[in-house]
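sorry for the late reply, my laptop died twice this morning and i had to redo everyting from scratch. anyway the thing you sent over, i finally got around to it. pasting the sequence first so we're on the same page, its 343 residues, then the predicted structure underneath. double check i copied it right bc i was rushing
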Amino acid sequence: MNDIDIVIPWVDGSDPAWRTAFEEARRVYVAGPADPVVATGGDQNASEIRYRDWGTLHLLLRGIERFAPWVRRIHLVTWGHLPEWLDTSNPRLNVVRHSDFIPTEYLPTFASRPIELNVHRIEGLAERFILFNDDMFLTRPVPPERFFRHGLPCDMARLSLIAPSTISHTVLNMIEITARRHSRTASMHRHPGKWFSPRYGLANLLKTLDLAVWRGWPGLADTHMPQPYLRDTFVTMWREEREVLDATCRQRFRSPFGVNHWLMRYEQLAEGRFSPVGFADARLDELTEERIGTIERYTRAQKYAMICLGDTPLLSKPNFENVRSRLRAALEAILPDKSSFER
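ok and here's the structure:
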């Protein structure tokens, strides 16, 4: 079977019912749980900025339908709310509520990690699937071979140092687990063509060469793009690393503790269960007043096949509407027609 699905977690932070549940959970959270595994160390990780709805879900779906028509099915993961324009009768759309697949002990959750770490439990999910975020868009045609080749996920294996960031503790946790499970030198020796593929480009190859003299795993470069996975990687990791996955899924809000779905990606890279691919066709950016002009230009020009545009605290509420309007206009310029997912 060559079926490929897409999974998209989505939340509407303006939904009154969701906000009521969110505020109640945050009230308990800010009070400070005693368990250091559950506690997250401050109110920043429960910030409303993490749940702002950019009103671009319909454009994400338009991009998938137009530029990746080979996708078998889209699994839209939601707390329970849905946009009014969504045509839920579309046979290629599977609306999945948290309670449909996430174990009861992890609910309710207002963090992405319990959702993403349990996606393999979605009923009917294909063995090969691509995990999107709702801030990722396809902006020109992509073949299925961009994500899966020879039955394996397409990815880039590049060594990297772990830079200080809001998730550096999480990344370090996952590198420690990967190092316990796999020898870095053995992995590279088994699959040299995958670690030193010319598809990555000279700059990426030189970075890996520079760090290959280190012992162990210094870190892995993270692409922040639509991520292809094998479902059985999740099944295996839950069987063999249940303790850390269980602890992470019990966190109600984003936390520096635990792991995220990149742990499964690291496992695929360390095992050599991937096909090399370059990322010159992808662009990661932040939605700020300073960047929106550049984002508009390359989006309208369809310079990249896929883009990830993250929200940021640097974008204040007064400027949010302006930036959102400009982003939507740029995407609508290349995706003017409704998709079959819209009424």
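The first helix runs from residue 16 to 31.
thats about all i looked at so far, will dig more tmrw
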